[in-house]
Predict the structure of Cell division protein FtsA.
Amino acid sequence: MRPLYQTQRAMRAIRRAALQRGVIAILDLGTSKIACLVLRFDGPERAGGADGVGPMAGQTQFKVIGHAVTRSRGIRFGEVDSMGETERAIRTAVQQAQKDAQVRVDHVIVCLSGARPESFALSGEAEVEGSAVTGWDIGRVLGSCDVPDVGLGREVLHAQPVNWALDHRTGITDPQGQVGRQLTADLHLLAVDAAAIETLLLCLKRCDLECAGLASSAYVSGIASLVEDEQELGAVCIDMGGGSTGLSIFIRKHMIFADSVRLGGEHVTGDISMGLQVPMAQAERMKTLYGGVVATGVDDRELIPIGGDTGDWEHDRRVVSRTELIGIMRPRVEEILEEVRARLDWAGFDQLPSRSIVLTGGGSLIPGLDGLAARILGQKVRLGRPLRVQGLPQAATGAAFSAAVGLTLFAAHPQDEWWDFEIPPDRQSARSFRRAVKWFKDNW
């Protein structure tokens, strides 16, 4: 784990330096849109906050001073599909945000929804060397975790301690300074495709931007959309984006599982386009203005003009009832929710004390989706909106901006991860990620 450990520590150091300078950019790379927020940090970072034990723990006051949203290009299923188009889209979003903020930014924290995330549960334990637990003891415990085989060409994106136990006491938030003999940690590890990460970092470098952190969109969407009680008692956040649908399970304020379904709102738009023989732009407009998943008797009489400029008078004057439109959209939405239910059943979501389900993301804005989701998932469902942060414009407060808002909270209130602690060299795993590290050394 040594090469990856060093890579992530380097990115943490970059983030810490950017926070001390006071300005950093947030970049949400979605399949349908790219959102950029510029943050200004007003107060110094205070280490050792109540939410963590590592050097990155604490709380920092920040304000959004610039924002920009542009149509995503070159991104498919939440991953970079065309380097040139993605580079131009990122440059457009960042330059507009810099102009709005009237400040230059060189460091960005990025979230992505693709790269096939997969969760692993780890545990480790070690004897406390002194009378009380120190940071060195925590590093020894984390270093004792037996890293699973995440697969060839896979990269660890998150490695977060989710529970601490000291002797017979469990559920400890911060073991440092407490007296005990045997320290145990439970760790959640999230692995993604290394090639997708490397391509994204290379694209940022071509945009003259330095990456100060990476995060999963499913994780940051949960941070922004779940209230404190839901994060504590157990809840799942379903982030329905354009190219993929991410899901993250939280309990005791920690993410314990994450996954994604490679289906999203753009697939619904594609079905409308093929079913009604209209361009994608027209299909997206119809979905936004007239779409839904539950038909009523009134919908038979609501006729929607399809329009067109083909020159064929009969073709350009076509109309379709809202019931027909819903009949096209509903099967695809049901397919997405069925896939989500299968992932939740596999993860054991029904074993949690509280099984709250929160829908967010741009795809969650389809009317009637919460009721359909409740019937398919078998639980009570609510629509989630991101928490308000200071300076956030009204246009960026909707469900489509949950990942962007969550990324601001991820930047200002980072959770402890494996690489925030000094791991003893003799305890680090011998597994190497040579290709990722070689790219990192050649390009940073």
Observations:
- The longest strand covers residues 154-166.
- The CA atoms of residues 41 and 62 lie 4 Å apart.
- The mean pLDDT is 83.
